[in-house]
Amino acid sequence: MSEVIEGQRQTDSPAPPLRQGGRLWRQLLRVGFAAGRGRPGDRLRFWALVAAAAAVALVTLGTVVASATYDGRVARNQARGPIITDRQQDAVALWRETFDAVGEVQHTVVYIEPVKAGAQPPPGLVRWPAPGEVMLSPELAHRGKNEQITSRYGSYAGSITKGGLVSPSERLAYVRPPKPPTASERESWFYTTGFGQSYPMGEILYGRPLSQLLLALGAMTGVPAVALLVVASRIGSSTRDRRSNLLQALGGSWWHRAVVNTGEAALPIAAGTALATLPLVAALAIDLRIPPTGYLLNSDDLRSAWPMLAIALMVSFAISLAMVIALHRVDRSGTTTRPRSFSSNVPRWRLVGCGLGVAAVVCSQYVRGVPGLIVFAIGTVIMWALLPSVAVTACRGLGGVIAARGFRTGHPGALIGGRWTVAHPGVIVRLALAMVIGIGLISQIQVWNSRLGEKAAVARSAEARLGDRVVSVQSRDLTPSVIDDLSRSLPPGSHVLALKSFPERQSVLLQGTCPALRSLSLPCPEQPERASSNDIRISAIASWYGRSLQTQVAPSRLALDELNGSLIVVTETRGQQAEIEEAAYALVPAVNVESPGETWLVGAANKDRMNNWTLLFGSLGLALLLLTAAISAGAEFVRIRHVLAPLSVLTGSHSIFRSVVFWHLTLPLLISTLIAAIVTAWHSLFFIAMVQEGRFSWGVLGAAAIGCTLLTMSVGFLGGRTAIRAARQWRPTAD
Questions:
Q1: What is the DSSP string of 171-193?
Q2: Closest C-alpha to 52, from 690, 627, 531
Q3: Are 334 and 287 in contact (CB under 8 A)?
Q4: How far is the CA of 237 from the CAs of 271, 278, 355, 464, in angstroms?
Q5: Which SS3 state, helix, strand or coil, does residue 429 take?
Q6: Are 594 and 484 a contacting pair, CB within 8 Å?
Q7: pLDDT-derived band of residue 648, with 50, 70 and 90 as boundaries?
């Protein structure tokens, strides 16, 4: 430090100013670097900054990765989209699109038929499939193995390459029918002159805008990462306070303190930023699957965006370092360099900001569509970020009451703890931040994941009871001869019936042979009569296809109404839908085969996959908040054990330590937990009322509140125990 003083004194030296200034800056950087590896509080700050910098870098990299992935998806979807034309003479291929499902996950099936020699196949195909062949995406071939997906549409001819898929996890099939479509069948096909036009198909149909993904990432993971960085930056250290006091006494400016802080924080921030590159390196090397979403990142997209990823790392480092420097403020009076603890009052702007956040949440119900959700999300972020300050304001007022009561009753623990709460509300802010936001985050994840829908819930219940013993087969090409062929190719024990709906009468008619009707415990009436059977399959048909169900023996061969008819295949046992689908696709391309309610189950599964992104970001955010709480508690223990230790001489008892910690930490945090639980219940119920979907679980809220209560009690217990241990080792020293 003597060299620092010399640097200040030699400003009038004839030596070049830049050289002397550079020497001072280097010395200040060395001072900061050495300070970062000192006492226990400094080591805690070092590792806290490592974790915070890694979290900020992950969020920053995630933003770039999401943008690069979306750009790649758009480009590949543009390249593979068919260019539709009405001029048949210009067409090079026929195109027809339909949908199917493996499990509860829907995929796109594209039927293609080249009509001109030399035409280029769609991107992702090395050649046109031969008649009767199918090419599947790797994910579809893998996931549908148990459902005979490789033989469902024809003979398996290979995989679709990554260049033809918006993501490696996309489920897509290209099928060429065994015979070219006839002139009448071509009415349901499109003519295409090639490929290279944006077209909604495959995964693109179920995607969400990039803005929504980034909003979720920022709200659920970015905010906790910033909270961790703020807490890590504000962790107190007596060494840093003395160093700042010395710089203040020597006339050091904000820039001198910034240089020292840079030397102290640069190494841990650089280490944390480098740590965040480990998952990035893996994603650059291979197509990395993101749990629990199941989404496969395309490594080609990330490699093409490596300049932006490098810039993101540098920006993340700069942001983290700038926040650490900016948060090391001095008192305006210039008498202290300690980080401001709001010893007088919590800044009024925090309370006003929280009120504005609540107002945005309330007003979002009057804004329709996506803009309303955006307003709701922004208001939610502001409200939860500033709610701890509101809780601390209440706790600070309570602290004054506790201190006054302790003074009147002669209770030293209440007196000291209450005055500490009044004097240091910032400590409670940092500790309450994790628990308050954590309760809200857990409840929001639960609410989002509960948005299943009434129809989907009924479908899931029906599937559990019925399975796939009732399957509908729909196509405009189901002629009587095709129906006869299908009946002969079905698994043993299967029966085919025709279902015709009458929308004007709101009824449906089920026709079939007498054996088919008797397999459902139905009579064989010559004229339509109301169905009456205890068979669960009849109940399912009535529930999903028409309440007013009538039955009749088919007068002749089964025939369907092209607009309002479909086939119903019933089986005695479960697990035969795959065989039924294979038989149907062999006879009629682009046929639709599904069990009752399958459409709703597919929609619910798609919503579940979207909710998995919420679960991913929310889990990461919750982990960061728990880490923030642990670091805050650790920093407070370091401070408490040194400050409380001399009280053992004055009181002669260790009970004073537990009492002070209870009034200063445990009670305010319990109040913060109660406020957070009340606000969370209101916020979640308001969201459910706004979107008219989902349900709120009081059990989840109760479990989260109990968890925070246990954490609060643990903080109090460990704080008191740490103070007692320090008191036993404390010896007076000359200051």
A1: -EEEE--SSPPPTTGGGGSEEEE
A2: 627
A3: no
A4: 21, 31, 34, 60
A5: helix
A6: no
A7: low
